[in-house]
Amino acid sequence: QKAEILVIGGGYGGATAAKYLRLFSNNTANVTLIEPNAAFISCPLSNLVVGGSRTLADITSPYDNLSKRHGVKIVQDSVSSIDPEKKTVKLASGKTLRYDKVILSPGSSLLMNSIEGLAQANKAGVTLQAWKAGPETVTLYKQLAAMRDGGIFAISIPEAPYRCPPGPYERACQVANYFKQYKPKSKVLILDANQDVVSKGALFKKVWAEQYPGMIEYLPKYNVTGVDAKTKTIKFEIQEDIKADVLNLLPAMSAGDIAVKTGLANANGRWVNVNFLNFESTAQKDIHVLGDSIQVAYAMPKSGHMANQHAKVAAAAIVAELSGWEINPSPVLTNTCYSFVNAKDVVHVASVHQYIAAEKTFKPVPGSGGLSPAPSTLEGVYAWGWAHNIWADTLG
Ligand code: FAD
Hints:
By secondary structure, this protein is α/β, with parallel strands linked by helices. The protein is 28% helix and 27% strand. It has ten helices and 25 strands. Strand 15 (233-236) and strand 16 (242-243) form a beta hairpin. The protein is globular and about 65 Å long. It binds flavin-adenine dinucleotide (FAD). Keywords: FAD, Flavoprotein. Residues 4-122 form the FAD/NAD(P)-binding domain.
């Protein structure tokens, strides 16, 4: 009987893994992808939707090719529990599926309780995160559009690690770009729990000073502890309260709920430790975890590009294991994250990570990678090229 491989989550990690399991096995592996959403909506580039220069349709792709071209079975559902002893997963619809291998790429979860009052404020529609691209992304844009000129947009950033290190700073640029055109008396406040800008710091700071003078205020070491939905007041560990008009508060994050619930989050109770040669969880055999949910090695960001790379290493290792092939992998992962600083100019950060067998971890290759010298429109073209390529690689 053929091995059953269940892929849970059809985002950057899971969709790539499903496709490459089929490709690497010469279309022989039984691969089922379980994902609640009918289409793939990209978080990369979603900040352009927040800033109003793009729509959700520009960053949405169908899942059809995975089934039609690659023979992945797609189940539109979500997994409510995994039983590693019985090797079964239970779906929200009530069905139970058996597995030999699970690939789990559920993204990251927002720890709503880490900010007092946040859950209630979200419920009241006063705060939202839009940290998973979709309807909230559009709502955030609408909140900006409805805001008075002279109002304040506040975005808060939790202590790293969190999904997409440069993402919040890119979002601040996109909101400021919108304000510059339509609400020039308004302000963007960046409330950062970190000591300094976590990614591309010098580049972002230069952009804020040159392109958005007086509009973006950056406040490091501002750790948000609470929010009052009625008065739209943000509370901090140390500093005085701040009021804002549009509140985009990002709480601390963890591995996706289903990973935590299954008992896999054995790194500080928040992230999943994996064996980097096949991305198998160190807590449970035959459950391989990818993407944002894992405890990353040295300087590996929680990015879509990285999740895509994890997926290929895991898929190759699983196909080899199930086929009885002897392989001696020495994986190398690459990453590039582009950030739009306005509607067309972009900066990037790139890195290369080599598996070091003696240390069982990935380390950046000395002298590799780097940063843009300055924002450019040409890099904007590259950024869209990157997006169309990775969407084709993941789903095409
Ligand atoms: P996801 O892509 O989020 O996929 C997780 C999937 O699992 C989802 O589709 C979800 O519906 C599904 N799922 C969750 N739980 C279950 C369950 N119980 N059952 C079934 N399915 C489930 N990365 C870059 O590389 N470049 C960028 O420019 C970039 N920009 C970003 C900008 C923003 C604003 C944000 C928020 C993120 C950005 N990222 C970027 C980061 C990137 O989106 C994530 O790192 C990436 O999506 C992680 O992939 P993943 O597979 O771990 O999770």
